[in-house]
Amino acid sequence: MRSSRPRPWDAEPWKDRGTHGLAAALIRETMDHAMESPDDNLDHYALGFYALGKGLAREACPYAEGTEACVQWRDGYDAALRGDPEPTREAQG
Length: 93
What we know:
Distance between the termini: 62 Å
Strand content: under 5%
Shape: elongated
Structural class: mainly alpha
Largest sheet: none
Helix content: 40-55%
Order of helices and strands: HHHH
Oligomer: single chain
Number of domains: 2
Number of strands: 0
């Protein structure tokens, strides 16, 4: 007996395209999320600053290349490499 509840894939455009259509749709959805701007409530500079102490490489920046968040993260990382003082809330504005 088939349930009368709608299944998520019943309304999706890839339904009749088989596995390849599903994979393509999932890739598109993933890429859409990857291109979203990061949460503006995060202090990207401080995250980059403390990333060095966590053993992360500069290339491990979690933000898309060319975004303001990426620039701030790498600025923080470089400040930690130079031995600059830790960021403070007052300095962040």
